[in-house]
Design brief:
The complex is a heterodimer of chains A (179) and B (318).
Chain A: E1 4-9, H1 18-26, E2 37-45, E3 48-56, H2 65-69, E4 75-77, E5 84-86, H3 96-100, E6 107-108, E7 114-115, H4 121-124, H5 131-135, E8 141-145, H6 152-159, E9 162-163, E10 175-178
Parallel strand pairs in A: 1-10
Antiparallel strand pairs in A: 1-8, 2-3, 4-5, 6-7, 9-10
Chain B: E1 4-7, H1 24-47, H2 56-79, H3 98-119, H4 123-128, H5 130-141, H6 143-169, H7 181-201, H8 205-234, H9 238-244, H10 253-276, H11 285-307, E2 315-317
Classes of the chains: A alpha+beta (179), B mainly alpha (318).
């Protein structure tokens, strides 16, 4: 079974938001909601400042607290790609998963169920890349199977230093940001 | 320098800080805790043989608990965003989810409350139904069954009370809730609310003295648990220290210290200690303050917990 993940090159991402628009269009994300977004993090003191621009979304964690806390099993780790998915008609809208996610990656869809990034599983099943990956003009995304040592993502992660978001939260995210 | 984090996201209920749970959840947690306290009290009364004589509290608390629990579950239902799928809770058991445990515990609590009520039903109910009177007479003659019901009531009461706290503490993304002390704290607060209510309504001087004694011990324990809760956070990771600061100079300082600690625990404890020593008369003021304090405790913990987050040290803008 594949274990899909994503590597995002923070040296290439310019925060153009093409990934955000592509996601909203591809997944018909309702107005006022986002499955992915851009984070600009500035650290340091003037004039020695450092800025990292990141495209963020659900991290499809290996230790997903949203799945652990779900009372109905609607949030689950899918067999396909070990992706964290939500079965809409099993979700009661209790919002425990929203409160359990340290990345605040989930929201309540206007129809009442919890919603978030699916890694465009409908595209990946057909051998395509997620919409955000396919439109990126700077090619900052690498998507693929983390368990396959010959995949592009594994090779990239072997060649570059990378960091996940909030590693101390213990969720073991599968999105890694290349330094 | 504190890093500055700018997000292009502004999702409803999530940004600028998580606020997914409004009044319904604190009300549910308070009512659930109160029922848990009622179950512990009634179980204790039955084990102590109070069912063999007229006991206003033993007759009143189980019926009241049925109503309170139903109200609490109504509040919980109102909070759901996908209401028509609520039945999904009872088609599965997710052992890692405290909410799943809670939904099944709630289902077990109802029949136990009915059984407890039947051991010593109110006179009005006995007058209305001969069947109730007959069942009650049979139960009262079987000490072993009453004992079993009493123990079950106490065990389920502890489970229900602790669950209301664990429900929050299991959500690791909110550092303020990351403490096992919440389970014990909400259980203690529930017992305190039950004892305060007993103090408020009973006409029996014996029951009033007993409930005041119980409440005083539990209120003092609550102070200790709250102290340990804060110490635990202050000795924890950076996000937990930041979460503790919400009560130590942060935006929740006034509601926590004035309404939860001051008006909800310390002042009523002083009043009740004086009343227990017969230096002043019993009045409804102290128990009302205790019960209101219990509700505010849940509101403050639920609200402040959602405000706390892992993005430590980052100034978040949206």
């Amino acid at each position: 079974m594949a274990r899909y993940g994503m590597a995002i090159d923070t040296r290439l991402c310019v925060g153009c938001m093409d990934c955000v628009v592509a996601c909203k269009t591809e997944n018909r994300v309702p107005e006022g909601f986002n499955r992915d977004w851009i984070a600009y993090e500035t650290a340091g003191a003037f004039p020695t400042l450092h800025q990292e621009i990141r495209s963020e979304r659900c991290n499809h964690c290996d230790n997903p607290p949203c799945v652990t806390c779900c009372p109905t099993g609607a949030s689950h780790v899918d067999e396909f790609g070990a992706l964290v998915q939500i079965t809409h008609d099993e979700c009661i809208g209790c919002k425990a998963c929203l409160a359990s996610c340290p990345y605040d990656a989930r929201f309540v869809h206007p129809e009442g169920y919890a919603d978030k990034c699916t890694f465009c599983v409908h595209r990946v099943r057909e051998g395509l890349e997620p919409a955000c990956v396919s439109v990126c003009p700077t090619l900052c995304f690498t998507f693929g199977d983390l368990d396959d040592p010959d995949s592009a993502i594994s090779r990239k992660l072997a060649s570059r230093k990378a960091h996940p978001l909030l590693p101390a939260a213990g969720t073991q995210p599968r999105i890694l940001y290349l330094d | 320098m504190t890093p500055e984090l700018f997000l292009t996201r502004h999702n409803h209920l999530i940004d600028p800080s998580v606020h997914v749970w409004a009044w319904q959840i604190p009300v549910y947690l308070f009512l659930g805790g109160w029922v848990a306290g009622n179950m512990l009290l009634t179980g204790y009364f039955m084990l102590g043989g109070r069912h063999t004589r007229r006991s206003p509290l033993l007759s009143a608390l189980p019926g009241l608990s049925l109503a309170l629990l139903s109200l609490g579950m109504l509040a919980l239902f109102l909070d759901l965003e996908h209401k028509r799928y609520v039945w999904r809770l009872y088609t599965t058991f997710q052992w890692t989810s405290p909410m799943s445990w809670g939904s099944w515990i709630l289902l077990l609590v109802y029949p136990v409350l009915v059984l407890t009520w039947l051991v010593r039903p109110p006179i009005v109910l006995e007058d209305l139904s001969q069947t109730v009177e007959r069942i009650s007479t049979v139960l009262q003659g079987r000490r072993d069954i009453v004992r079993a019901i009493g123990i079950t009531s106490m065990v389920l009461g502890v489970a229900l009370g602790v669950y209301t706290g664990i429900l929050l503490s299991s959500l690791g993304a909110r550092p303020l809730w990351n403490s096992g002390a919440l389970g014990v704290l909400f259980l203690a607060s529930g017992v305190s609310a039950a004892a305060a209510f007993g103090h408020l309504v009973t006409h029996s001087p014996d029951e009033r003295a007993l409930t005041v004694r119980i409440d005083n011990v539990v209120l003092a324990s609550e102070l200790g648990i709250l102290g340990l809760f804060l110490l635990g956070l202050l000795a924890g990771s950076a996000p937990q220290v930041e979460a503790a600061r919400l009560f130590l100079g942060g935006p929740y300082t006034a509601p926590f210290w004035v309404f939860v600690i001051g008006l909800g625990i310390v002042i009523p404890l002083i009043i009740q200690l004086l009343a227990a020593r017969h230096w002043i008369q019993h009045t409804p003021i102290a128990p009302i303050m205790v019960m209101a304090g219990g509700l505010v405790l849940r509101w403050v913990i639920v609200s402040a917990g959602q405000f706390s987050h892992w993005a430590h040290g980052a100034m978040r803008m949206h």
